[in-house]
Amino acid sequence: MAGGPALLAWPGPTAAASSRRRPLAASRAAPLPAGRPVAPRTRDRRRELVACLRSWLAAVGRPTLEELLRVAPSDALPLNEALVAFGQQLWLEEAPYWRYAESVNAVAQLQPLSRGTLGFAWSLAYTWISEEPGQHHIALPSVCLAALVALALFWGWPQIAALVGAGFAGMMRPSDFLLSRRRFLVLPRDALGTTSYTLFQIMSPKTRATAGRHQVARVDPPDIVELLDGVFGCMPPSARLWPHSQSTFRARFVELLRALGLPWDRSARYAGFDPGEVVDLGSLRSGGATALWCETEDAEFTRQRGRWLNVRVMQIYLQETMAVGLLSRLPAATRARVQLWASHAPRIQQQAVAWLREGVPPDEWYDRWHSVPALGP
To answer: Are 97 and 135 in contact (CB under 8 A)?
Structure first.
């Protein structure tokens, strides 16, 4: 117990155990944080939301949050009423849903005994969702992936091409590959040629609190495996696969979408698409999962590869994404452009991998394409 008497009955660790535990000494210097474990980013966000809730309570003349939390174990109604009123205010201010949901989660973390007594507050959350349902990511078709990879290589962006392909084939979330390093990427060369696939070790998966703390995404398509090896194979183990910011990657991904004519701007209106319905990096995971399910028709296999906790959640997710097809709603000119770039993809990737092995800087690729047969600006 922190600050309590020493456990005199415990004789202490052995010398061998002490040597194994020595690296943990620094982390044992402070008490364990209270409540359920959350990521540092989530903890900081909840701290800001609690501060906002406290300010609102003071502004409207309600009891302080500390007073509400103190009586919550015996009488949770005042706390629920305050949270519902706060949620209604957020709704009127057109705040995003996550601000209210995370505010309730933050309050429950401050007073764990109230976790099961916030049904009134969560009822408002369910009403919010029913009135303003969220949108799943548009599933990116395989032909669009091929066009994006080809265009990225044509522009001299091999890292973006390789990671976009891996995100699709491995059904990864953007952070799974954007924050990765070379030592977390297991190529066939790393396995002494005994495998034909590539593994991405995901060190901070989204479901780490309810599933494995460390998870693995598998990339099987030979062309993507070859591209990953050509781009990242000779990197030192500590090197980041994407050395720049995530916003830079997203900006370049948007440039590729714009060049192909795919919907990318949430504030724009695209014919045949609902407001806010666009292709983004989240479309890689949904697109890869949809493609694998259509190819194999094996729900359990797709669930395992996509690292979903259960088949039911995955099937709802895929049915939603498949219901809003992309290709059939694109203008004819965009469809023709995508098909053209996709048809050139094998030749472009073959030449790009050859240049990578020859050590040709990607900055020189765009000018060199003029001399490649059947290709040009």
So the answer is: no
CATH fold group of domain 142-371 = hpI Integrase; Chain A (1.10.443)
Report d(CA 273, CA 270) in Å as an integer: 5
Q: How far apart are CA 48 and CA 58, in angstroms?
A: 16
Q: Which of 117, 110, 107, 105 is nearest to 76 (CA)?
A: 117
Q: How would DSSP label each residue in 295-352?
A: HH--HHHHHHHHT-S-HHHHHHHHHHHHTS-SGGGS-HHHHHHHHHHHHHHHHHHHHH
**Tokens 């714009």 found at:** 258
Chain segment 174-204, per-residue pLDDT in tens: 999 999 999 999 999 999 989 999 999 988 7
Which phi and psi (to 5°) does residue 217 adopt?
Answer: -105, 135
User: Residue ranges of the domains in the chain?
Assistant: 40-131, 142-371
What string of H, E and C letters represents the secondary structure of 70-121? HHCCCCCHHHHHHHHHHHHHHHHCCCCHHHHHHHHHHHHHHCHHHHHHCHHH
- Sequence-distant (6+) residues with CB within 8 A of 112 are 34, 35
CB 327 within 8 A of CB 143: yes
Q: Where is 251: in which H helix or E strand?
A: helix 246-260
Residue among 201, 169, 206 at smallest CA distance from 186: 201
Residue 69's alpha-carbon distances to 48, 52, 73, 81, 115, in angstroms, are 18, 16, 8, 12, 11
Query: Per-residue b/e over 18-33, b at no fewer than 16 CB within 10 Å?
Result: eeeeeeeeeeeeeeee
In the structure encoding, which two tokens stand for residue 200, read together? Answer: 């991405």
The 10s digit of each residue's pLDDT in 277-300 is: 889 999 999 899 989 988 988 888
Distance CA 292, CA 53 (A): 44
